[in-house]
Amino acid sequence: MSVTKPFSTIYRTATPHGIIIGVSLPEPQRIPNHIWSELHQRERKKADTYKGYRKISYVGGRVAGHIALRLIQKEFLPIDMDPFGAPLLSNNTTISISHKKHIALAMVTKRDNTTIGIDIENLRPERRGISSKTLTSTELEYYNNLPEASQWIFLALNFSTKESIFKALAPKLQRYIAFTEAEVYPQSNNSSIIKLFLKQEEVLPSQIKARYIWYENSVITSVQATW
Fold it and tell me: Mutual orientation of helices 137-144 and 148-173 as an angle, nearest 10°?
């Protein structure tokens, strides 16, 4: 039986929203020396401020990010953090990162006037209790009218897509965005309809698109906003 090496590439795909790379995350342990060499000096310094899983997930996200970035640019730039903790690059490339216990994902794109967000959520165990936190009153009515067998999938896709929406919008809006400021209705073609309810004085993206991908016992969602 083969054993997956820590921080090795276990997922890769190209989508209309960007290139996605996933790397394996080990249990909290000593990070191999050759992995540190894949990070920028500023990233290594930041990683040293974390412990346990937070350190592992931070390093994994940066490793995945640099693998993806090498596919579209020659520059080796640090993946910094904005004031909200989101990954940030100093050139015109946009990046988003997400992780769960055993995987870290990074998505990158070079599209002008575009921001992106990515999220991964486990499908098991079911967590139907998040409906009261995640859904607007309109979405909750829609959810309650679904067949019971379809409710959890709707809820998981809705929650994950909203996480991706927030990551895509926050770089422009520079604030926390509540779950009630967006409605998400997944479609059967691996896309979702999005309705935004932002503050009146804020500029809305000229276009916002959502996609989802099934991955093992998880769902990966991504959002692309054009400004």
Answer: 160
Which CATH fold would you assign to the domain 119-226? Answer: Ribosomal Protein L22; Chain A (3.90.470)
* Cα atoms in the Cβ-side hemisphere of radius 13 Å centred on 22: 21
Q: What are 176-220's pLDDT values in tens digits?
A: 999 999 999 999 999 999 999 999 889 999 999 999 999 999 999
Cα angle 135-212-25, degrees, rounded to a multiple of 5: 100
* Structure tokens given for 91: 């050139």
pTM over 0.90: yes
What six digits make up the tokens of 50? 């974390």
Q: What is the Cα gyration radius of the chain?
A: 18
3 state DSSP class of 52? helix
If one counts every other C-beta atom within 10 angstroms of the C-beta of residue 25, the result is 24
Residue ranges per domain, the chain?
9-110, 119-226
Q: Which one of 1.10.10.200, 3.90.470.20, 3.40.50.880, 3.90.550.10 gives the CATH number of domain 9-110?
A: 3.90.470.20
